[in-house]
Amino acid sequence: MEKEKLSKYSNTRLLNSLSSVIKNVFIPLENKSNDLKSTLAKFTSQVNHSAQQVSGTINIELPSPIEEISDAEAIKNVDLMLKYETSLVILFLFKFDC
Fold this sequence. Notes:
The chain is an all-alpha fold and 98 residues long. It has two domains: 1-59; 60-98, no CATH class. It has four helices and no strands.
């Protein structure tokens, strides 16, 4: 079990290092082709996703709770409603493993 934990940590660290090198070295050096920059950015995103899957951790950012707000005011606040709707969808997908 301890070896598996160490392996996950090492793999996650290596993937994060790879992502960092691509994002901070290769992408800034590439000025000729926007297609290559875009491809590198997509690859970096995939590496980050893989690191998350290897580590097994999930971070879901929830909006800060609002202390005193009426339903009418909340409904008018489109940004707030979108944040809560997005959070609910993420929690639903996570709960039911969709």
